[in-house]
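Help wanted!
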Amino acid sequence: MPALWIFIAVLVLAVLGFVLGRQRALAMVDGDSRHLHSLPNYYGFHVGIWALMPALLVLAVWLIVQPMLIDTSVKSMIPDTSYTTAGELSLVMSDVRRVADGLDLAVERGALTADEAMSLDAGATDVRALLGGVGVAIGSDVQPAVLEAAQAYRASTATGNMVRTVIVLLLALGGLGWALSRTAPDFRARNSVEKATLGLLIAAASIAILTTLGIVLSLIFNTIEFFKLYPASEFFFGTTWAPSFGGGSELGILPLFWGTFYISIIALAVAVPIGLFAAVYLSEYAGPKIRAVAKPMLEVLAGIPTIVYGLFALVTVGPMLVNVFGNEGALGLGWMSGGTAVMTAGLVMGIMLIPFVSSLSDDIINAVPQAMRDGSLGLGATKSETVKQVVLPAALPGIVGAVLLAASRAIGETMIVVMGAGAAARLSLNPFEAMTTVTAKIVSQLTGDADFASPEALVAFALGMTLFVITLGLNIFALYIVRKYREQYE
Amino acid sequence: MYDSPKSDSTVKHAIKIAANKVQVFYGDTHAIKDVDVQIEDKTVTAFIGPSGCGKSTFLRTLNRMNDTIDICRVEGEILLDGENIYDKRVDPVQLRAKVGMVFQKPNPFPKSIYDNIAYGPRIHGLAKTKADLDEIVEKSLRRGAIWNEVKDRLHSPGTGLSGGQQQRLCIARAVATEPEVLLMDEPCSALDPIATGQVEELIDELRESYSVVIVTHSMQQAARVSQKTAFFHLGNLVEFGETSQIFTNPKDPRTESYITGRIG
Amino acid sequence: MTDATVQPGAEGRPAKSGSLLEQDARTKRRNAAEARFKFYGMAAVGIGVIFLILLLVSIVRNGVPAFTQTFVTVPIYLPEDKLDKSGVRDPDVMRKVTTFGYAPLLDDALVKTLEENGIEMPFAKPAKLRDMVSSSAAAQVRDTVLANPDLIGQTVDFKLLASSRVDGYMKGRVTRESLARDKNLDAEHLDIVDQLHDLGALERSFNWAFIFGSDASESRPEQAGLGVSMVGSLFMMIVVLVLSLPIGVAASIYLEEFAPKNRWTDLIEVNISNLAAVPSIVFGILGLAVFIQFAHLPMSAPLVGGLVLTLMTLPTIIISTRASLKAVPPSIRDAALGVGASKMQSVFHHVLPLAMPGILTGTILGLAQALGETAPLLLIGMVGFIASNMPDGVAAGFLSPNSAMPAQIYEWAKRADPAYYERAWGGIIILLVFLMTMNIIAILLRRRFERRW
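Answered by r_m:
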């Protein structure tokens, strides 16, 4: 029975359990619900939950664990001679799965009987043609070992699925029965249901942890794989980035770091002064009318998706900069040869970050108590003196935090650099040259045609790991500073 | 309690501030109605009255702190040494250097004690050299009656002081800009009785060089520190006169009710 | 009061004797600095607003032309001997005639149109004329004929898509000069285009296919539309909504109402605020590694995209949901507990309904963020896939490969063809209309239900 049907069956059992539990509870007190400890529905929910939860839990675990177990056991069946690297093994395994799926499909379509499918012989039948007939294309002729493995795969999957169906359904029935047997007028059904609900709430809250765990694990495992194939020291200290999918790549992260850093600096150089001055103006000078217009307008900038900024960089800002700084540009400087450049991406990213910096700084400036301003103004300071010498120094930690958060955004930004910065990894000081960043290379290494097990694709995980560690460090530090700052004035 | 030299209240001093027909509006609310009052130099004038009577509002009109509130509007004239401070040509910044202010809650800047005091002299350019500034800081702290307590830690943050010390620091800070008038908005309401006593003593000493205007909700305090008292009620100046006369022989029945505790 | 020994004297007031009515030099200087500072602030706000306007103008100017398309109306004769030799009008039989069989009909029709209108034929080969219409034109004629075999033998007026160069010429994107380096179209074609336009046989009209149609291959920008990827986005948003709303609300309720103050809770809190700031591309890596490599879910499927975006928007939704739960005053909880409700009942019966408008507002804004997100979708294969077919069913909608609006826009921008740039800008207009609608709904919701406690 497929998992979906089991799921539906369990759901039906749960609903049934609800009805039975409710009826049983009411029947025990002759329909007078005042003699029950809890409302009748709680008895229903109690039985329903017991029918549902253990069964679904086991089903979920089973769905994850069974393929892993079968994979390992089938992997051991494949002869060592048919592969040399882990990458080839994973290719063979995906062939095995395809063949197995194809056989399933063939049986379903009636091209084979179930028995035929089990006793198929790679020498006697053209399995490739057979599977092609049901719409499953296999890259090459099916090796006997692969077919054998696929058979084993099918067999253990079938057994596993059977056992799964039986166990899950038994659990659902058992849970239902047990919960039903506990139903009694003085049974505290509500407390029991609430405990289960609390468990669900906790599970939901833990998803955040699971996500982080997922991120960390997927990055770490693949990064370790990568460092097995490519030395870590060359990755961290190499000054050349030249992946070639044929092998012999040079994968030094330094040029990518430099590009990331350079673009972020330009972005911050645009966003921080403009954002900060805008925040100061809006919170200290602007009247309510100007604030009511200008603030939402800046916030619109923040709500625009990054793909729009990317296209803006690629199609509008890049050519505009070339017109000014290019070979035939207005200034005749000849600094810029193409529209994609560090300057293009940095400038556009700066625009994107303006509202981010300004709204964070606005919050922080507003947290400075009015008494500070009064004290300064009462001494005869002008507003700007008050801002520069009292408000901003008082808000400094918070503003530093905001700038760090903006820096972390800039480092992690992808679409703008993919579209606006270019693809060439270089260590150059000229901001009008194309350079590339860590994020842009993650995209290009994972969307290319490379095999996932090759160093050229795995390097993306090492890049992602580096990116994650840097931004996480920045975020934790920045959030810590901001929180400390807030506490100071609370 | 200590003895206040009340005896010299009979000495006539020059008029420092004269308010004529002052009206203050907050949006549509008429907060101050037709107030006429004359504040003398080298005198402590107390504004008393129930909460929300407008005494703090009126105090803030005297150095145009109300300008920082968008919806606030002032009519009438307030003359400081004969010049209308609401004249278009008057720069509030210059005015506030002459009319200093101390606030209800001590509000030292998050800077060192030294920098707190030096802030005003620096922005007004009162010191030419570092030595000048050092001198001003010391003089102001002495005048704020806090020098002995902080002279060994001038460069530690002003926010680290106790409440009473902070308030005396704020008074010293206000004094440092060499004002002619000192406005105090309930300067002791956030302080304990001992700190209050110290600040009151200080106010009495400050009277020798400045015209001091103090808003207080405590009648005892007004009686202790002031020579003149103004009683505000519902935005009106009900009665203004010698402190001793207001407290012993009020002319207006409302003043009497307030002083005897029937309204407030 | 031993401190107050320094007697203030007349020497204490040097610069203060001046009149208030005139500013001294220092005050003038300080006021100038004040004015400068204020100006910087205004300039900063102004620059921000100018950037916004520049961006919007750029979007509208470049994107609006994508909504119209140039069409050529040509009468085409559909001869029986070429299209249906058997004469039985059976579509299955007629299918044997491929688009190559239809192409000559187009040529004939175009030549005839020129002759009838007295336009000079500048080319030796009639096939050269066909460059003016989209390469999809033959397929369009074929599809029409197969859908309605009775048309055979008649002359039918077809409204054919003009080729992207002709369309670009009509929109001012392509000029005779730019064609000099372009092998796809000649200046002579443009002469014909001009004359056909004067005759009314060639005109620009609103192009619904851009909004509802499907993507086309790289060489046919005139045919590409956003419709299929819009469906992809829709399915993704369904996944995001169905998962992130209940999970987000449940997590927020736990953290805000039940969580004891301990290490585990602290860890969750720090985690959530950090996840909200993790670069979106990292979520793409997570999706690739966990959902595709580990769980073997299909590449490019909206289900996977939705799962990734759910994980990405959850922190945002949790943060805003907690804020709205926090805004419900404790007195409400106390009131419920006071009449004997359990903690759980007080939360679900009283606190949650009161916080609902705020939660929905936050969720809509989270969805809007997810709708515009591109980077993680690149890694799970939603770019590079040509979304040419509508999914045939709900299950297929979730599981079969598709694109999403922002991914489709990126894909078009990547094709580095001005005609596709125009479509990318047009796509952005559609995307922004969606985002704007969602934001307006959120704002209205907030206005309508906002409560001040």
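OP: Thanks! One thing I noticed: Chain C touches chain A through 87 residues (CB under 8 Å).
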